[in-house]
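Progress against Task 2.4 (sequence-to-structure conversion) is shown through the following example record, which the project officer requested during the mid-term review.
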Amino acid sequence: MDTEIMLALLSSTLHPQEFEQSVLLDALANSNGDIEAAAQSLRSQPPRKRRKLDNTNLERWLIGSKPHTHSAPSMALEREYHSISSGPSRAASQTRSELRPAAVERSGLPSAPVSKVEIEPKDVSYSSLSVSVPRMRPLTLSTPELVAKHTPCTIHYSVLPPELACRLYHTLLCSNPDWQRASGHASSFYRRASTSGEQLHQETEYWYQGRLRELPPTFPAPVEEACQIIERIVNAEMCKRPRFPLEWGGFPSKGSKVVPAWHANVAASNCYAGAKENICFHSDQLTHLGPYPTIASLSLGVSRTFRLREVVPSDEKDKRTARTFDIPLRHNSLVIMHASTQEMFKHAVPPQSSIDMFHPPFPPSPSLTDDKERLARLQGASNARINVTFRFFRPDFLSRTIPRCKCSIPCILRPDMKNRYENASLAHPSGEDSNASNGIGITGRASTMAAGKKMIVARYWWACAVGGRNNGKGCKYWKEMDVESEGRGPFVKDVQ
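Structure tokens generated for the chain above:
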């Protein structure tokens, strides 16, 4: 009795239960061809519906267990059809007896001759087939060493005195009139008192999506205290890092060495109340920050996750995929997004399923408010996380120098994140020969992260602030930034 007849008898015996042919074959093999014994073993199993085989599974069944030694593109082609010639496509035909399932071979059951099966060829080329690149799982960066290794950021814990951190948190929570709802969270904006109000007004009046803003309030006293401490930390870190050609170069010098001087003159604050308030992936607009800015982000209150994801250049997408990095941010921690973060990465604060309430270790000052009920609420547990991002608005990117689009509002500056280059040299603040390290001028702490990657973004463009006005409909204005004709600088490349 041949295999086809045995399969038919076994299937009719099990009716109305249905099983896949491979299951029937295995049952026959395990029972040495005894149909009744095979049926008895299958009746004890729950019925399984036959699945419709796609082309890939059908061809894999036809090919059987024959080993392959082809490369990845050849395997992709072989799944599409059985034979490929160097010239035009030709039909591939093989008999089923030559390509019988491995289960039949293991069982020793006789196989019945089957008529020849022909598969029609398709016109296909190697270039039309894409080989999938495996995705990497998100990686949690739980130590400063891991953050510095995988990203252009550094993290610092307990940066402020505990009493100041708590006082700053309570002060910002009480400034509810200054909070304005954004997408998924609340935000506010401050200017430093030492900055000329008239000049800074030019920079801040269009700071959010091209909408005209009133002159923001000055730094509250705790914000100014925190800013002075954070400035020292940021400048100390910048002295350890390589410099990019288009970074701001207007800092003082000591002899032949260039000393970075980062001066925060504005602060944007965001409040995330509860576990669901969030902000999606984005990079900060560079309109007044200029290329390769440094931004210091202070976290206060509830612990939340800060998420980073690299933007993979267009010419590398077939080789690798972007990896997501999660950085847990606890109370009184500082993340410094160093130069190239806004050019190479996007960041987000994702919603969470749950959070741990924050219990302030110090009570709020009675001078914050006359409302005793509100003061009592501040003393209790809080579900809010506040971050303050200190930024340096560059004097060579004043509002009067920003191009205006056809909507008659200032444009926003965006980096060309899809294209990177290797042949631009970087200047190191220590005066070392940056070109002697790894071919792209990266030395020191950033060299591990930069190994094998293109690190230079050299093109920026001015674009219409879509969504700021005209009911979200922009004019699609676009213009590449020309730093020389626009009178930008000085840059690091100009002062070396």
